[in-house]
Specification:
By secondary structure, this protein is α/β, with parallel strands linked by helices. It is 41% helix and 19% strand. The strands form four sheets. A five-stranded mixed beta sheet has the order 5-4-3-6-9, with helices on both faces. The protein has a five-stranded mixed beta sheet with strand order 12-11-10-13-14, with helices on both faces. A hairpin with a 6-residue loop joins strand 7 and strand 8. The protein is globular, with a radius of gyration of 23 Å. The two termini are 14 Å apart. The site of zinc ion has 5 residues, from loops.
């Protein structure tokens, strides 16, 4: 049972009730479209007249439209309602240490146009390069009204100041990305950690995780982040940095991490770790006189996946080592949180047939619990990190309102 927070609450006014009902109807249309008013009343438990009033308001605001007539055995043929995809555009920006991708999406999180740029090391330069690209995307479909910009970051966002904090892999110090972006584009900007936005995206659009009560998303890239949904709520912690299991010490006195600590999980289970395992393997097996070339030492993770797929043993071993450490870090999440599902996001899921069994086996060996947590890969084709940015803006209209 969720307790009422008596130190911070708003009493329920009639507007609150109206807002909740409106969001329920809007969400039902999104997930069941096309849907008739009668079915909306049946699914929501609202009075038919209440549904009609809300639907008229949503049509007036152009969130939804009426489509074709439905067929019933007898009586009046109902008109179906669906989201008005021609009305709203959302800009999504996925920031990663090397490349930033951005897209214009519709209400169903379909990408209509995309762009990318190299992520500069200076955040001010980043904003200067980003803004014209955002404007260009907004102009790609001028008939759409842009509702906002969602940004996912390889760091955490301070709950109070909305500044980016703790982004060791990006190398940016505390930085306000929201204000200059809002000023330049005149659009509201939602910032969120990449793992958190992926978790929100999974419960909004995920094929398997939609509507799950307890979900952990583990994003595996240059680093590792976790997004936690517990009891349908995103866990943010006291300052917004909850979920940083990537920087939980897994190996005592282990390798030094960019966060300043030693032995962090991500030092052993991230893409960068797999590249290191591979580089070490080729360095140690080369003939002493032949030095490894810079190319061999700076192989990309994509390349490593290709080599493993082609049967290269050292690349395969590097992935296995990464998978073992992924399992070692996921095991305490299973034991401690007992989520319904853990979704892994990242390029590594393309090699799921190789890494999946190792991850699951390691988790099984190291978590002593009755939890029946499924461990599944996200589908990389859906671009989950970029899709997560769309969820950030959508949830402002479709998510549960803040009433506590
Ligand atoms: Zn660390």
């Amino acid at each position: 049972m969720r307790r009422i927070d008596l130190s911070n609450f708003q009493v329920a006014r009639s507007e609150t009730a109206r807002d909740i009902n409106r969001r329920i109807v809007l969400n039902l249309i999104r997930t069941h479209q096309p849907i008739s008013r009668a079915d909306l009343a049946r699914h929501s438990g609202l009075q038919r007249s209440t549904v009609s009033v809300i639907a008229e308001q949503l049509i007036k605001e152009r969130w939804i439209t009426e489509g074709a007539n439905g067929h019933t055995p007898r009586g009046r043929r109902p008109t179906f309602l669906h989201l008005n995809k021609e009305r709203v555009g959302i800009i999504g920006i996925n920031v990663r240490p090397i490349t930033t991708t951005l897209a214009l999406a519709d209400l169903d999180a379909n990408f209509l146009a995309q762009d990318s740029l190299s992520t500069p090391s200076d955040p001010k330069q980043f904003v200067a390069e980003l803004v014209p690209r955002v404007r260009k995307l907004m102009g790609a479909r001028p008939e759409l009204t842009c509702e906002g910009i969602g940004v996912s970051l390889p760091g955490r966002v301070d709950l109070a100041s909305k500044r980016l904090v703790f982004a060791p892999n990006l190398g940016w110090r505390e930085f306000d990305l929201k204000t200059p972006l809002e000023k330049a584009t005149k659009l509201p900007v939602e910032l969120e950690n990449a793992a958190n936005s992926c978790a929100l995206s999974e419960i909004c659009f995920g094929r398997r995780a939609e509507g799950l009560r307890n979900l952990v998303v583990v994003t595996v890239s240059e680093g590792i982040g976790c997004g936690l949904i517990l009891n349908h709520q995103l866990v943010q912690g006291s300052t917004g940095t909850a979920g940083e299991f990537g920087h939980a010490a897994l190996v005592p006195d282990g390798l030094e991490c960019s966060c300043g600590n030693r032995g962090c999980w991500e030092m052993y289970a991230s893409n960068s770790a797999a590249i290191r395992y591979y580089s070490q393997a080729i360095s140690s097996t080369r003939a002493p006189r032949r030095r490894t070339t810079a190319d061999e030492r700076t192989i990309s993770f994509e390349h490593l996946l290709r080599l493993a797929d082609q049967g290269d043993n050292r690349a395969g071993d590097a992935l296995q080592q990464m998978a073992k450490y992924l399992g070692l870090g996921i095991a305490p999440l299973v034991s401690g949180l007992a989520p319904d599902m853990i979704v892994i996001v990242g390029e590594v899921t393309r090699a799921w047939h190789q890494v999946g069994p190792t991850i699951k086996e390691t988790v099984k060996q190291h978590s002593f619990t009755r939890a029946e947590t499924q461990i599944v890969p996200s589908d990389p084709i859906t671009q989950p990190r970029l899709r997560g940015t769309i969820a950030l803006v959508l949830l402002k209209h479709f998510g549960a309102p803040a009433i506590v």
